[in-house]
Known about the structure:
About 35% of the residues lie in helices and about 20% in strands. It contains ten helices and 17 strands. It has helices at about 5-30, 140-150, 180-185, 195-200, 210-230, 250-255, 270-280, 285-305, 330-345, 360-370; strands at about 50-55, 70-75, 80, 85-90, 95, 125-130, 160-165, 170-175, 205, 205-210, 235-240, 305-310, 355, 375-380, 390-395, 405, 410. Strands 8-7-6-11-12-13 form a six-stranded mixed sheet, sandwiched between helices. Strands 5-4-14-1-16 form a five-stranded antiparallel sheet. A four-stranded antiparallel sheet has the order 3-2-15-17. Strand 6, helix 2 (about 140-150) and strand 7 form a beta-alpha-beta unit.
Amino acid sequence: xxxxxxxxxxxxxxxxxxxxxxxAREGGQVPQTAKPQAPAATFRVAIDYVTTDVIARNNxxxxxxxxxxxxxxxxxxxxxxxxxxxxLVHGGRVHNLTAPPAPPPxxxxxxxxxxxRNDTAGRIFLIIxxxxxxxFRNTGRIRDLFKRISKNLVHExxxxxxxxxxxxxxxxxxxxxxxxxxxxIKRITGSGLKPxxxxxxxxxxxxxxxxxxxAHVAFSTAYDMLxxxxxxxxRRKAVIWVSNGYDFNPFAESxxxxxxxxxxxxxxxxxxxxxxxxxxxxxxxxDADLARExxxxxxxxxxxxxxxYTIDPRGLVAGSDLDEQLDPVEFGEHVRKTQxxxxxxxxxxxxxxxxxxNNFDKALKRIDAETSDYYMLGYSxxxxxxxxxxxxxxxxxxxxxxxxxxxxxxxxxxxxPKPEPQQ
Length: 423
């Protein structure tokens, strides 16, 4: 047998000499610092699946319930889209449910597709009690209105939730129990500001601070609830919004200073009040701020396929109360602005505004009919531009003369998230 020891010694000497040579080279040269690598680019791909509700009626104003997917054409910003789903809701019940196309199968065990659920019953209501903008002295009238809503609008099998903006403290999760609605009606109490409270109250840079605060509470409550309703798919949601309306600059002349007959705030004349307001530019953009708040709420409602039905419980307003000594012209302008705000909320989402009328039963029956019969169409938007937030949609019928359709005219995307700062 040949000894292997000399061979091992040779390998050891060779490795040692190689290591010393590398050490000598490293000691003679300055090591180069590694260049920082550029961050990898991130590509995001998103497909926006859009659903919109459509109401089809014939010449006799009767709902047409025999339409199919081929009878509709839908356009987004003038570009025709492929309809991938259609749901018919007739009489408040879902009769057919065509789900979106299934995703491509992955590797492994392929399971059979589940049957679409068609046992969804009833309608979906959100009742907003804006008691921060309801008069205390009209509490009895307000409760009577909600009793009419419980009798003529919300039926057995409908799912509803109730939320209030003020001291009524209503926050009822979605339920089918009508007894919950009857118990909630007993707790509703108006707590709105009286005109004298607004005129004599404190003001900030944006005008009456309490008026702005209460309006922001109402809008933020509605915004949060509508954002939650986006999670409910393939359904049309109805929002019953009971409020006196909103005005960011109420009784502007009376707030300036002392009224020559009845007196006013701070004991100053109106001329002094105008001079002070001119120096501070106070409440200059009140109407623009109100329009911005209303637009944000309506955009959120359209994203959630929610229709706002606003109701003014004051009914037909004839004039101010006798104990509120107001200028009739100013009071009329205030009422007009509050009613216009309710009209904007309803008309921009496809609903109706029940204002300046006392026949609530007729209006509730119309709301009941509109929320009971409709189609829900769905499509995948082919517009890849995420910066195009507001998009116009148009729904047409093919070869169905004598049938007219109503649908939403636009929807808005959410704002893009801000990019994370690079480390």
